[in-house]
Each structure stands twice: as structure tokens, then as C-alpha cells.
Design the sequence.
């Protein structure tokens, strides 16, 4: 049996198209059209991934996301929003969503995202090294190596690198990074964060394939790219 995907979508046309595309690719589908239905299904079906439309008829989608996250602490939740609803995306990610898709999306993009999230381990991060391509982050020794050569990092730069690489492939919001790295949000600012990201980019350079390690996700935050 393929991975189980819970589709929460009140638009029957979209729900039908997505279900057919996923089933054709070996996924096992459970679909529901309301937030309450999603919360009920989450317990009974224990899905491997949830695709959650934020615009639902009965409950606020972000609230549903929070409830699903509480029930399914390690399950990827991909939220679906109308295009350019940046605020929804930020709030949704802070509510525990793993990633987002903007409508309209193509089935090719959807399938690629699902493959990525079902491949990335979403359990608690291990206490061992984090390896992303040529980069190795030794969290116990507070050191990072690129192709075996140590990268000289200041303490906050290292903490930021740990936060980003531990969840490589996922978008991390600015608020979340500020909380994790600087603890006290009100003593720091997004400018501080941006400066540290800039420093990390300068010290890491580009990957072997010429792509940047850290992508800026407009109006949302940053993503450390999987190699
Ligand atoms: Ca909707």
C-alpha cells in the first residue's frame, strides 16, 4: 500500500482532480470537505501526510491546522491557500504546517512536494550530525564543515544554521527563527535575522550545483534547500 494522504478540500472539482492524480501515483486517499471531518479522519486514518485547504466552510483552516498538528505531531501538513495570501501562509506555518502550496498549483508541483515531504524524516531531529549535501553540522561540538573544511561561524550564525538545516526543505517563518535562535523575540528584529542569513550565505558560498543553500521565501521566511 502506498502512503496515505488525507485531502481536506471543500471544492469538489479540486478534490476530485487531486484525488485522481494521487491515486494514479499510488497514494491511498481519504478525502473530506470540512474541518470537523478532517479532525475526525485524522484520528481514524492516521495519514502519512495531510493536504489542507485553508478556506473551509465550517472552521477556520488555521485553527484546523493547529488541531491536526496536536493530533499528528510528526505528520507533514501541507496547507493550500489562495495565491498571494502571504499572511495566511505565515500564520499557517506558525500553526504547525510543514509547507504550503498556492492555488492554482499543477499536479506536477503537488506530486513533487509530496515526494519531498514523505522522504524527509519528520520525527524528532536526531542528536547526531545533520548532513545536507557537502555540509555537515556537528551539533554537539558546535562546528560545521563544508567538504570537510570547518566553516568559521559565530555562535548565533551556528544556531541559525542548526535551526535551518534541522528542517532542511521546509520553510521556516521569520518569527519562528527569531524565537528559536534569539529566544526573546522583542530583543531582536527581522533585520538581525536578515544580517545573520546574509553572513551565513557569504560563509557557505554556493552549492556544487551553483544553487544557493538558503532560499528567501518572499514575505514568509527562509528555507534551507535539500541538496
Ligand atoms: Ca476552499
Sequence:
Amino acid at each position: 500500500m502506498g502512503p496515505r494522504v488525507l485531502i481536506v478540500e471543500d471544492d469538489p472539482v479540486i478534490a476530485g482532480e487531486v484525488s485522481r492524480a494521487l491515486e494514479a501515483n499510488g497514494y491511498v486517499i481519504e478525502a473530506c470537505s470540512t474541518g470537523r471531518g478532517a479532525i475526525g479522519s485524522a484520528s481514524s486514518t492516521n495519514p502519512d501526510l495531510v493536504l489542507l485547504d485553508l478556506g473551509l466552510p465550517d472552521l477556520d483552516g488555521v485553527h484546523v491546522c493547529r488541531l491536526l498538528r496536536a493530533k499528528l505531531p510528526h505528520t507533514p501538513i501541507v496547507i493550500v491557500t489562495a495565491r498571494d495570501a502571504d499572511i495566511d501562509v505565515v500564520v499557517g506555518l506558525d500553526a504547525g504546517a510543514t509547507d504550503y502550496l498556492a492555488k492554482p498549483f499543477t499536479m506536477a508541483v503537488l506530486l513533487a512536494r509530496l515526494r519531498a515531504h514523505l522522504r524527509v524524516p519528520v520525527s524528532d531531529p536526531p542528536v547526531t550530525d545533520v548532513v545536507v549535501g557537502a555540509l555537515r553540522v556537528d551539533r554537539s561540538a558546535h562546528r560545521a564543515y563544508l567538504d570537510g573544511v570547518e566553516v568559521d561561524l559565530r555562535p548565533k550564525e551556528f544556531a541559525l544554521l542548526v535551526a535551518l538545516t534541522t528542517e532542511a526543505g521546509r520553510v521556516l517563518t521569520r518569527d519562528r527563527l527569531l524565537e528559536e535562535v534569539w529566544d526573546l523575540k522583542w530583543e531582536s528584529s527581522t533585520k538581525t535575522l536578515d544580517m545573520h542569513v546574509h553572513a551565513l550565505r557569504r560563509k557557505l558560498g554556493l552549492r556544487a550545483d551553483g544553487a544557493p543553500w538558503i532560499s528567501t521565501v518572499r514575505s514568509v521566511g527562509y528555507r534551507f534547500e535539500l541538496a
